[in-house]
Amino acid sequence: MSQAVHPLERSGTASAIPKLSVNNLEIIFENPATGLRTEAVKGVNLDIRQGEFVSIVGLSGCGKTTFLNAIAGLVKPSAGSIKLDGKSVEGPGPDRTVVFQKPSLLPWRNVLSNVIYGLELRGVRKDEARERAAKYIKMVHLNGFEKHLPHQLSGGMQQRVNITRALVCEPEVLLLDEPFAALDAITRESMQNELLSLWENTGKTVLMVTHQIDEAVLLSDRVIVFSARPASILEEISIRLPRPRTPELRDNPRFDYLAKRIWELIHSTAEKKVNPEYEI
């Protein structure tokens, strides 16, 4: 098997300016009925390079999805800043797309129509939209299923459509929120392989939230371990494992060491008391 070229290496030396930069980010929610304030994210600093694959792990409810939603522009920070290519993120934009846990496909639209839906909203010409869709549909091995409706597809195939719908808009950053959580173990492993292939072929910058430690280690260049709420960065783990990555890598002693190290960090926060007033 030939050695895969990391997206960071394709265009020579990486830019000194991070693709995505988060500085001293804080997110506080206030319950208007009680006046209680809950810190969800506190003092997070994170730089992500062009073409890097970064995963965030941590306890359930620690603030991972809230942090991802802030990057997407869906949650307004209480303090700090988020910059993409040096420009402040003030809200949702075409430079970022989110893939959620559930596909949320439009049931009356077939695969092709679902994939081009976002392009239609942006006013992209129909012939261009179909051409771009065909490229990504082939990339995720769904060619031949363009006319199928969502209910005619398996869960894994629906999520492939969901990811394709995000990629066809050609965002600068792809945000993944537990994209394979609803899938069985075999389908999940298959989708992990599909995602790795897509990332290698497109060179997209990816930020993913996951509860699966082995998934984070398998896919990522770095794993960011969040503390219990309010979320802060406990540690950044560099995943220095060879690419291309395959499921057999799980048998590598280094893989096992990294997974155990991440588990220990998360476990160390499990006893910390968190405010139950606001469920992230």
TrEMBL record:
Keyword Transport: yes
Superkingdom of the organism of origin: Bacteria
Sample GO molecular function, one term: ATP binding
This protein's UniProt keywords: ATP-binding, Nucleotide-binding, Transport
InterPro entries found in the cross-reference section: AAA+_ATPase, ABC_transporter-like_ATP-bd, ABC_transporter_ATP-bind, P-loop_NTPase
Domain spans labelled ABC transporter: 22-253
PANTHER family per UniProt: ALIPHATIC SULFONATES IMPORT ATP-BINDING PROTEIN SSUB, TAURINE IMPORT ATP-BINDING PROTEIN-RELATED
Name used for this protein in its record: NitT/TauT family transport system ATP-binding protein
